[in-house]
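ok so I'm stuck.
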Amino acid sequence: MKDITNPGWIKAKGILFLVVGIAAAVLLLLEHPSWRIALLLALTVWCFCRFYYCAFYVIEHYVDAAYKFSGLGSFVRYLIQRRQKR
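replied:
not stuck anymore, here's the structure
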């Protein structure tokens, strides 16, 4: 599959992710309206955002500057290849 290079489509994709994420969160909270669920949902989103940041920015800038990641699949392959080289 070819990478998206058009800035308009990249922005549209980002907005679509935001809309789908907000819709999913709202539907979860409507189904189970409690502070506990809201807190767990917020914690889940925050942790996955931090994982994504770690998988790309931290690894690329502090662990292996030569490797350029292109997605989570690329990150998993990188981890597997590093483990096999040891």
